[in-house]
């Protein structure tokens, strides 16, 4: 998969070279291009924002640098571009959407700052590319950079060859085969730590009992923390 990121803070993306995503890059599963939007400005101050028409607080990102950036990325002529625009006004980013994005050949993350990007850039993108405006949740970040990092990590770990044991993908919270339950609690050695014992059933060697206990734990945890994931009668 090819991933391009456009931002006025390209340094935000240095951590992508760490850990699992870093390995996906060094092994060639992911090809990453990080681009400074200011490279597509032409004035002395490399201006990327301006005051909003109609008034109001904050600044809006100007359309011209974005237009040139997208044109330049398209001219790399790699694969059809799927544009991801992180914004608190977007559709909720979910595991299902992560799987959908993981099937694309080329993702381009357009990171807005301030009050966002001039709407005409989005309209232009919708006309020329596939576009996903996504939100991480109901809170406000200062820009799309941290949100892009989250989306990239969620997507890249789904690519074939990135995770050693693909079975672990199917078991985790929010994965489709999991009836949308939160994951059960996990334990490892030692069997007693600071006086706290590992639940006896996990030491029993009875796989049926273990599976039953884990499901009960997952349902109870989901009922307490995320009742919205359960059907109205509270059943999984
Ligand atoms: Cl995707 N962007 C910004 N700026 N804030 C957010 C967000 C995205 N998701 C939640 N808050």
From TrEMBL:
Reactions it catalyzes: guanosine(37) in tRNA + S-adenosyl-L-methionine = N(1)-methylguanosine(37) in tRNA + S-adenosyl-L-homocysteine + H(+)
Domain of life according to the entry: Bacteria
Matching InterPro entries: Alpha/beta_knot_MTases (IPR029028), tRNA_m1G_MeTrfase_C_sf (IPR023148), tRNA_m1G_MeTrfase_TrmD (IPR002649), tRNA_m1G_MTases_N (IPR029026), tRNA_MeTrfase_TRMD/TRM10 (IPR016009)
EC number: 2.1.1.228
Localization: Cytoplasm
Amino acids binding S-adenosyl-L-methionine: 112, 136-141
Keyword check for Methyltransferase: yes
CDD domains the UniProt entry points to: TrmD-like
GO molecular function: oxidoreductase activity; tRNA (guanine(37)-N1)-methyltransferase activity
Domain tRNA methyltransferase TRMD/TRM10-type: 1-230
Annotated function: Specifically methylates guanosine-37 in various tRNAs.
Quaternary state and interactors: Homodimer.
Annotated protein name in UniProt: tRNA (guanine-N(1)-)-methyltransferase
Organism: Tessaracoccus lacteus
Gene: trmD
């Amino acid at each position: 998969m090819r991933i391009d990121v456009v931002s006025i803070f390209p340094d935000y993306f240095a951590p992508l070279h760490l850990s699992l995503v870093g390995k996906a890059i060094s092994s060639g599963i992911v090809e990453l291009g990080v681009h400074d939007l200011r490279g597509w400005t032409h004035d002395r101050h490399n201006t990327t924002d301006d005051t909003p028409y109609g008034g109001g607080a904050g600044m809006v990102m100007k359309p011209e640098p974005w237009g040139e950036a997208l044109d330049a990325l398209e001219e790399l002529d790699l694969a059809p571009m799927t544009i991801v625009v992180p914004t608190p006004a977007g559709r909720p980013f979910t595991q299902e959407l992560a799987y959908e994005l993981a099937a694309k050949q080329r993702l381009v993350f357009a990171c807005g700052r301030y009050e966002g990007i001039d709407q005409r850039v989005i309209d232009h993108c919708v006309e020329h590319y596939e576009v996903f405006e996504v939100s991480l949740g109901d809170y406000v970040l200062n820009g799309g950079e941290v949100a892009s990092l989250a989306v990239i990590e969620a997507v890249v770990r789904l690519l074939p060859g990135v995770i050693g044991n693909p079975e672990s993908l199917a078991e985790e919270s929010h994965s489709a085969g999991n009836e949308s339950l939160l994951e059960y609690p996990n334990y490892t050695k030692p069997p007693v730590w600071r006086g706290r014992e590992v639940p006896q059933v996990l030491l029993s060697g009875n796989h049926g009992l273990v599976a039953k206990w884990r499901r009960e734990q997952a349902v109870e945890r989901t009922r307490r923390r995320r009742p919205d994931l359960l059907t109205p009668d509270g059943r999984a």
